Amino acid sequence: MPADGEITIPEITPVASDKVLKLGTNAAFPPFEYVEGNKVVGFDITMGERIAKDYGATLEVVDMSFDSLIPALSSGAIDFIAAGMSVTEERKQNVDFSVPYYESEQVIIVRK
Questions:
Q1: Predicted confidence band of residue 6 (pLDDT cuts 50, 70, 90)
Q2: For labeling, which of 1, 38, 49, 64 is most exposed (least CB within 10 Å)?
Q3: How many domains does the chain have?
Q4: What mean pLDDT do residues 53-65 have?
Q5: Which domain holds residue 47?
Q6: Distances (CA, A) of 17 to 20, 21, 57
Q7: What is the CATH number of the domain that holds 33?
């Protein structure tokens, strides 16, 4: 994360002409995105709402399989992805990534 605490995102050009930004996600990763009742909620959704607000748009959340996200973005079915996706060289060949806003370390746990 940048030192000043600001998150830099690539420029987003909405596909829809009616000021709706479509956020693609896979709502299976709480607390980032998950279904509560009949609504997708979580940190990434709140961040998406803020991005939409900054663009003067409303947010439409599109829940889909994780493997469908990049193809949906590439085809223009969604405007951006917020889904706990890690940056890989293969993915970087097809899409632009923001500065990472969350880092985690995976570990194996054993008895003492």
A1: low
A2: 38
A3: 1
A4: 93
A5: 20-84
A6: 7, 10, 10
A7: 3.40.190.10
